[in-house]
C-alpha cells in the first residue's frame, strides 16, 4: 500500500492541474536584451506593407528598465509601456520594430547610438533570469521550435511516466517469478484487521530479514534447503514458529537464534503436544480469545525426585528457551544440558540437534524414539554425556560416533526387547518393541554394528559405556584396554563373540564388567587380578570354560560374581542351552575368603567340583549364594551356615542360598548335605523347592 501511495503522489507531480503550468516547462519571458534595428531597406519595405499612412511617426520615449511594444491591430492607439516585472504571459503583445528614420537625441547611457542602432541597457544582476535569450527577428507567421511547445512537453512527460511504469511492472513480475514467495506484491488491498486470530499473519519484514537464510546455512544438515521441505516437515514448522508465532521475534543476528530454532525443531520432531510434562498448552489466551499452541506464556509444575514442585515454562511458549522444562543453561544463557527423561517423546532424532554446539549433557532416555542415531551427533564438540537408553532405536550404529572423543558417557542400551507404548497427539500409538514403532514393520532388534571393534580406543575419555540389550556383533578388540578411564562396561544381551581379550586386563579403573548373554567362547584372562578396582563381573550365559584363575582371588574389592548358566551349543541346530556338564570347572579355592566384600556368588549350571571351602564363611556380607546344578558335593561348612544369621537368610527377604540338597532324582542321596539352605534343588530333575 505504501508503494502504491508513493507511485500515485509521484504521478500527480507529473500531471498539471487545471490552469497550472506543467512541471518542467518554463514560462515564456521576453529577453532582457533589446532588439537590434534591421537594415533600412528591409524596414522600409515592411512598413510600406503594414500601413496606408505616409505620415511619419516619432519614436516613443523609452524609460530605463522599460521596453517598447506596438500592436499592429491598434495603429491609432497610443503605445503602452510594460514593466518587465509585470509581464503577463497570456497577453500576446508583439514587440514593435524601431523606426529607421527616427532621430532621437543621444544621451549618455541612453537607448540609441549615433548610427541609429539600439544598444543594450545595464540590467540588475539580482533580477537576471537563468539564461538570456539571443536577439531574434519576430515573424508573425513562424512557429516556436517543437521542443519549446508546451503541449509537446506535456505529452512527452506523460509518455515517459507510462513507459517507466510499464518497465517497473515487468521487472517486478520477472523478479517475483524467479524468487517465488519471497517477493511481496507492490500493492496490497487494504483489509480491516481481524478481530480474533490464532496466529500472527506473516510479514514481509520477517521473511526478508535474513532469518531463513541464516538458519538454512547454519543449522540445516545434509544439504537440505527450506525449499526442499514439505510444509508439515518439523524443520519447516520450526522456521514458521520462529518467524511468525514466537512473540520474542528474534533477528538474524541474535546469538541464540540457532539454539532457539533447534529446540523448537525438537518440540515439533518429538510431538510436544503428547508429552507428559510441559508440552501441551492449556491456558486461555486473552489476546486472541482462544486456546493457542504457540503464543501464550505458560508455566508448568513438575515434581522432582524428592517430591518437591518445580516451576518451568512450557515448550514453544514465548519465553526464554532456557526456562523451558528440562533445559539447563549457563549464566550467559547458553544451553549446556537437555534432560527429557520419561516424557513420552515420539519420533526421530533430527540431525540438526548437532548444532547445539555447546551442549554437554543430553538425556532422552525412557521415551518412544525410533530410527537411528544421526551421525552428525559425533560433531558436537562439547558433548560429554549422551543418554538414549530405553527407546526403540534401531539400525547401524554410525562409525562417526568414534569421532566424539570427548564423550565420557555413552548410554544407548535397552533398544531391543524394551516394551513401552506411547500415544501421539493425534491418537495413534507407537510401540518400542517394533521397528519404527509400527507393528507392521516387525520386531525391533535394536542397534547393530561392531561397536567394540578396532576404533574403540578413540573414545579416550570414556568412563561409562552402556550398550546392553541391542544386537551388536563382532569380537571385542584388544584395543579396549586403552580406555584408561573406563569404569563401567555393560554390554550384556548382545551378539559379541570370540575371546575376552588380554588387553582388557589393562582397564585398571574398571569396576563393572557385564558381558553375560552373548556368544563369547572364552575363559577368564589369567591376568584378571591386575584389574584391582573390579567390583562386579558378570559372564554368565556364554560358552565359557577352564577354571577360575588364581589371580582372581586377589580382587579384594569384588562384590558380585556371576558365572552361571554356561551354554552348550549344538553344531547341528546351533541351539544353545544352559548345562551343568560344560563351562567353568575346577574347585573353589580357599583364597575366596580374601574377598571380604563379596555379596553375591552365582556359579550354578557349571561343572565345578570338590567341596565348598569353609573360608567362604569369612565373606560376612554374602547375601546370595547359588551353587546348585554343579558337581560340588559334601556338607556345607558350619562357617557358611552361620551366615544365615547375618545377610544370608530369608527372614529379611534378601538372603538366598541355593544348593543340591534335595534327594537326587527324587530317591537318591542329595549331592550336598545342607542344614541352612533356603532352597534345595534336585540335581537330576533340576527342580528347586524352598526349604520350609
Automatic annotation (TrEMBL):
<keyword id="KW-0675">Receptor</keyword>
<feature type="compositionally biased region" description="Basic and acidic residues">
    <location>
        <begin position="47"/>
        <end position="58"/>
    </location>
</feature>
<feature type="compositionally biased region" description="Basic and acidic residues">
    <location>
        <begin position="1"/>
        <end position="12"/>
    </location>
</feature>
<dbReference type="GO" id="GO:0016020">
    <property type="term" value="C:membrane"/>
</dbReference>
<keyword id="KW-0812">Transmembrane</keyword>
<dbReference type="InterPro" id="IPR032675">
    <property type="entry name" value="LRR_dom_sf"/>
</dbReference>
<keyword id="KW-0433">Leucine-rich repeat</keyword>
<feature type="region of interest" description="Disordered">
    <location>
        <begin position="1"/>
        <end position="25"/>
    </location>
</feature>
<feature type="region of interest" description="Disordered">
    <location>
        <begin position="38"/>
        <end position="62"/>
    </location>
</feature>
<keyword id="KW-0732">Signal</keyword>
<dbReference type="Pfam" id="PF00560">
    <property type="entry name" value="LRR_1"/>
</dbReference>
<protein>
    <recommendedName>
        <fullName>L domain-like protein</fullName>
    </recommendedName>
</protein>
<feature type="transmembrane region" description="Helical">
    <location>
        <begin position="152"/>
        <end position="174"/>
    </location>
</feature>
<keyword id="KW-1133">Transmembrane helix</keyword>
<keyword id="KW-0677">Repeat</keyword>
<keyword id="KW-0325">Glycoprotein</keyword>
<keyword id="KW-0472">Membrane</keyword>
<dbReference type="InterPro" id="IPR001611">
    <property type="entry name" value="Leu-rich_rpt"/>
</dbReference>
Amino acid at each position: 500500500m505504501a508503494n502504491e501511495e508513493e507511485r500515485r503522489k509521484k504521478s500527480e507531480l507529473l500531471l498539471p492541474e487545471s490552469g497550472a503550468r506543467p512541471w518542467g516547462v518554463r514560462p515564456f519571458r521576453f529577453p532582457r536584451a533589446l532588439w537590434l534595428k534591421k537594415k533600412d531597406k528591409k524596414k522600409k519595405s515592411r512598413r510600406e506593407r503594414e500601413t496606408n499612412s505616409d505620415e511619419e511617426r516619432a519614436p516613443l520615449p523609452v524609460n530605463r528598465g522599460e521596453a517598447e511594444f506596438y500592436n499592429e491591430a491598434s495603429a491609432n492607439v497610443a503605445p503602452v509601456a510594460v514593466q518587465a516585472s509585470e509581464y503577463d504571459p497570456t497577453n500576446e503583445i508583439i514587440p514593435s520594430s524601431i523606426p529607421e528614420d527616427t532621430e532621437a537625441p543621444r544621451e549618455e547611457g541612453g537607448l540609441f547610438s549615433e548610427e541609429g542602432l539600439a544598444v543594450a541597457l545595464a540590467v540588475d544582476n539580482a533580477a537576471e533570469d537563468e539564461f538570456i535569450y539571443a536577439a531574434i527577428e519576430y515573424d508573425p507567421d513562424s512557429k516556436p521550435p517543437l521542443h519549446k511547445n508546451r503541449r509537446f512537453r506535456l505529452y512527452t512527460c506523460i509518455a515517459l511516466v507510462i513507459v517507466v511504469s510499464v518497465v517497473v511492472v515487468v521487472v517486478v513480475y520477472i523478479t517475483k517469478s524467479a524468487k517465488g514467495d519471497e517477493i511481496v506484491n507492490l500493492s496490497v488491498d487494504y483489509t480491516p484487521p481481524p478481530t480474533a486470530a490464532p496466529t500472527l499473519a506473516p510479514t514481509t519484514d520477517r521473511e526478508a530479514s535474513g532469518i531463513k537464510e541464516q538458519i538454512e546455512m547454519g543449522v540445516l544438515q545434509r544439504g537440505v534447503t527450506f525449499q526442499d521441505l514439505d510444509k508439515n516437515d518439523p524443520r519447516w514448522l520450526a522456521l514458521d514458529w520462529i518467524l511468525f508465532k514466537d512473540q520474542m521475534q528474534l533477528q538474524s543476528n541474535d546469538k541464540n537464534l540457532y539454539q532457539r530454532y533447534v529446540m523448537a525443531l525438537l518440540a515439533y520432531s518429538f510431538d510436544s503436544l503428547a508429552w507428559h510434562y510441559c508440552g501441551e498448552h492449556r491456558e486461555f489466551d486473552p489476546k486472541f480469545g482462544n486456546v493457542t499452541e504457540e503464543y501464550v506464556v505458560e508455566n508448568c509444575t513438575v515434581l522432582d525426585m524428592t517430591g518437591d514442585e518445580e516451576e518451568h515454562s512450557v515448550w514453544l511458549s514465548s519465553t526464554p528457551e532456557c526456562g523451558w522444562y528440562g533445559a539447563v543453561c549457563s549464566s550467559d544463557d547458553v544451553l549446556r544440558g537437555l534432560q527429557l527423561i520419561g516424557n513420552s517423546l515420539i519420533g526421530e532424532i533430527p540431525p540438526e540437534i548437532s548444532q547445539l554446539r555447546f551442549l554437554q549433557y543430553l538425556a532422552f532416555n525412557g521415551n518412544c524414539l525410533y530410527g537411528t542415531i544421526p551421525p552428525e551427533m559425533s560433531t558436537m564438540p562439547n558433548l560429554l554425556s549422551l543418554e538414549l537408553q530405553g527407546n526403540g532405536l534401531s539400525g547401524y550404529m554410525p562409525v562417526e560416533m568414534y569421532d566424539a572423543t570427548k564423550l565420557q558417557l555413552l548410554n544407548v542400551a535397552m533398544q531391543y526387547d524394551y516394551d513401552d507404548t506411547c500415544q501421539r497427539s493425534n491418537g495413534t500409538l507407537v510401540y518400542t518393541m517394533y521397528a519404527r514403532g509400527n507393528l507392521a514393520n516387525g520386531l525391533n532388534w535394536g542397534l547393530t554394528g561392531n561397536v567394540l571393534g578396532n576404533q574403540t580406543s578413540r573414545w579416550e575419555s570414556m568412563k561409562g559405556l552402556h550398550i546392553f540389550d541391542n544386537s551388536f556383533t563382532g569380537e571385542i578388540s584388544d584395543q579396549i584396554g586403552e580406555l584408561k578411564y573406563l569404569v563401567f562396561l555393560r554390554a550384556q544381551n548382545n551378539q559379541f563373540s570370540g575371546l575376552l581379550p588380554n588387553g582388557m586386563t589393562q582397564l585398571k579403573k574398571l569396576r563393572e564388567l557385564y558381558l553375560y548373554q552373548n556368544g563369547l567362547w572364552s575363559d577368564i584372562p589369567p591376568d584378571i587380578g591386575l584389574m584391582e578396582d573390579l567390583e562386579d563381573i558378570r559372564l554368565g550365559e556364554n560358552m565359557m570354560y577352564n577354571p577360575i584363575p588364581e589371580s582372581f582371588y586377589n580382587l579384594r574389592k569384588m562384590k558380585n560374581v556371576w558365572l552361571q548358566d554356561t551354554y552348550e551349543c549344538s553344531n547341528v541346530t546351533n541351539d544353545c542351552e544352559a548345562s551343568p556338564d560344560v563351562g567353568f570347572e575346577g574347585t573353589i579355592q580357599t583364597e575366596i575368603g580374601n574377598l571380604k566384600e563379596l555379596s553375591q556368588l552365582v556359579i550354578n549350571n557349571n561343572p565345578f567340583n570338590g567341596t565348598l571351602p569353609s573360608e567362604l564363611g569369612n565373606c560376612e556380607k554374602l547375601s546370595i549364594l547359588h551353587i546348585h546344578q554343579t558337581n560340588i558335593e559334601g556338607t556345607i561348612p558350619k562357617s557358611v551356615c552361620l551366615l544365615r544369621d547375618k545377610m544370608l537368610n530369608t527372614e529379611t527377604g534378601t538372603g538366598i542360598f541355593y544348593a543340591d540338597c534335595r534327594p537326587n532324582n527324587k530317591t537318591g542321596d542329595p549331592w550336598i548335605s545342607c542344614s541352612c539352605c533356603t532352597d534345595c534343588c534336585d540335581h537330576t530333575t533340576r527342580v528347586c523347592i524352598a526349604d520350609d
